[in-house]
Amino acid sequence: MQFIRRHQLAIVLVALVAFGLIVALVRYWAGIGAISNLSDAYPWGLWISFDLLCGVALASGAFTTAFAVHIFQLDRFRPVLRPAILTGFLGYVMVIVALLVDLGRPERIWHMIIFWNPHSVMFEVGWCVMLYTAVLALEFSPLVFERLRWRAPLAIIHRLTIVLVILGTLLSTLHQSSLGSLFLAMPRQVHPLWFSAFLPLYFFLTAIAVGPAMVILESSISSRVLHRGLETDVIGGLARAIPFALGAYLAIKIVDLTLANKWAAAFRDGMSALFWIEIIFGVIAPMLLFARSSVRHNPSRLLIGASLVIAGIVLNRFNVSLIGWTRPNEGWYVPHLLEFAITFGIVSAGVVAYGLVAKFLPLFADEPAPAPSPAE
Amino acid sequence: MSRYAMLIDETRCTGCRACQVACKQWNDLPGEQTRNRGTYTNPPALSAKTWSMIEFNEIETGDKVGFYFLKRGCMHCEHPACASVCLVGALHKTPDGPVVYDDSKCIGCRYCMSACPFGIPTFDWDRGLLNNALIRKCEFCVDRVSNGLIPACAKSCPSRVIAFGEREQLIAQAEARIEKNPNKYIKHIYGKDEVGGTSMLYLSSVPFDQLGLPALGTTPVTALSEQVMEYTVPFALAWGATLAGVAAVVRFRNRGKRIVENEKSET
């Protein structure tokens, strides 16, 4: 009994993972139709909107933090770098696992390595996600090497860090924006309030904004669950970037809607309401909050602001790819409960993996002072 | 412009569905269990088992209600969105006209289905890992056309709705029919210019959107995404160089600071 009480959360998570695995087996045996409401009219559903689009966006804390620490050399953010890299790495692994369920032919996922179509945005996304996951694995590897006390590989990775971070930032810029470009080919399917030639820029700017927000969320949760201190100054400092990214996004969006003469669509129907919810609660409110120093120094207000940014970006990705995505006279799509089972299973597996890493690897150890290398 | 096309004159269609049946027979497609939905359109939509079908539209013209048919199927675009977006290049347009599918490459991402402006490609939703789940759509009977035969649907049509031939000649033929019967036809050949032109050309006596064909512009829907992809490599090089430059400048500036700090801490 005591075991159950002590490990309540872990047991629930493992049960969700197990259920997700069973559902995945049914999908592999009987087809995607057996566990989902996906159809020829709605070929992309919950898994693409949440597991892929939101998953990649919410994993952006890794590249934004690595950029701040290694390219701008802002050492004060170093304490949150390792958790951010881990969250990003697990995020991308979760995206790939979700794709292995969603793809019609998961056993052929490697085909994108040998069959090329440079016209396809998906081709770029596939390559960038693959390469960036490898970069994240390398950025994460020092935790393993430190634990195993393997000095030689540790020294090699340490030397390579700046190259990895530049490459990671480049790859992230490319595919975070390309996820928006995916929808450039669907001018009729995507709702006019969201369809724009600027979709790649919008996806990129919102990904930059949600990176620090995810670090705040992840630090807040881990400090409570794992009973450790919260680096309020550090995450408050990261939050300073959010108003800039969201501000740029909002300004371009306003100009874009004005030039395209689309404001009428913002005062019409349910989609208009979702648009305003997204803009007011997901963009304007967090901009105002994080601009205030009293918010940036208060753990619970930081968490509220970060949650708004995250909820805003999730709503945005759903509006672009699912809620506002229609073909006339093609009916409705509401995700099947078993589709949620897959998503919850994957997210739970990610949380469990995070917990295991926190328990067995030096996740929160501040990095050792950089050894003076001959290059420096 | 591709060589072959089909001119589908919907004013001649009687809704006999011989084309629908011939398509199933030639491509060896199974039947579908359906139920009465209060319409003659059956099955309800294209699927992995039905690549071409007749849709029955009940349309009011003046004080009369009539059946107006649409032969639904792949349009075989001149600039196919499906082929443009396919990350493994499983779909391509042949010089003859058919947009064909290499099922050995496909990974089942279904981007073709999302991007198709006509919503044509379908997927084997009921097939698991062991059952070869694939994208399915009309392939313009490429196996017949490349052997000098006409497509199964055109071959089977008893009322000569579907004419197979050279695209330019069919367009001239369609224009001649409109000119000869200006009161009968809508003055528009659907597919001549839509999304950059298609290999399926339609004539109708009612507006095409009432038949269920979407009103589309004349530029291919993938024009923008292809343009973005062309900028990708130059952008990546420039951005990569910028990032490296920023990193170098920051390092250079901080190095000075660090030496000063180290000297301070030593004293």
Descriptors:
heterodimer, A: 376 residues, mainly alpha, Formate dehydrogenase/DMSO reductase fold, B: 267 residues, alpha+beta, Alpha-Beta Plaits, 2 domains, three-stranded mixed beta sheet, two-stranded antiparallel sheet, 8 helices, 34% helix, elongated
Quick summary of this structure?
The complex is a heterodimer of chains A (376) and B (267). Chain A has 376 residues and is mostly helical.
Q: Reading side by side through the largest sheet of chain B, how are the strands ordered?
A: 8-1-9
Low-confidence stretches of chain B: none
| Count of separate DSSP helical elements of chain B | 8
Low-confidence stretches of chain A: 367-376
Number of alpha- plus pi-helical segments of chain A: 15
* Major sheet summary line of chain B: 3 strands, mixed
User: What is the strand tally of chain B?
Assistant: 9
Q: N- to C-terminal separation of chain A?
A: 57 Å
Write the SSE topology:
The complex is a heterodimer of chains A (376) and B (267).
Chain A: H1 2-6, H2 8-30, H3 46-58, H4 61-71, H5 81-102, H6 111-114, H7 121-148, H8 151-181, H9 199-225, H10 232-239, H11 241-259, H12 270-291, H13 293-296, H14 299-323, H15 337-360
Chain B: E1 4-9, H1 18-27, E2 53-61, E3 64-72, H2 81-85, E4 91-93, E5 99-101, H3 111-115, E6 122-123, E7 135-136, H4 142-145, H5 152-156, E8 162-166, H6 167-180, E9 200-203, H7 208-211, H8 223-266
Describe this structure in words.
The complex is a heterodimer of chains A (376) and B (267). Chain A is mostly helical and 376 residues long. Chain A has one domain (13-329, 337-359): Formate dehydrogenase/DMSO reductase domain (Formate dehydrogenase/DMSO reductase fold). Chain A has helices at 2-6, 8-30, 46-58, 61-71, 81-102, 111-114, 121-148, 151-181, 199-225, 232-239, 241-259, 270-291, 293-296, 299-323, 337-360. The radius of gyration of chain A is 21 Å and the shape is globular. The termini of chain A are far apart. Chain B has 267 residues and is an alpha+beta fold. Chain B folds into two domains: 4-79 and 134-211, 2-Layer Sandwich (Alpha-Beta Plaits), CATH 3.30.70; 222-267. Helices cover 34% and strands 16% of the residues of chain B. Chain B contains eight helices and nine strands. Chain B has helices at residues 18-27, 81-85, 111-115, 142-145, 152-156, 167-180, 208-211, 223-266; strands at residues 4-9, 53-61, 64-72, 91-93, 99-101, 122-123, 135-136, 162-166, 200-203. In chain B, the strands form four sheets. A three-stranded mixed β-sheet of chain B has the order 8-1-9. In chain B, β2 and β3 (64-72) form a beta hairpin. Chain B is elongated.
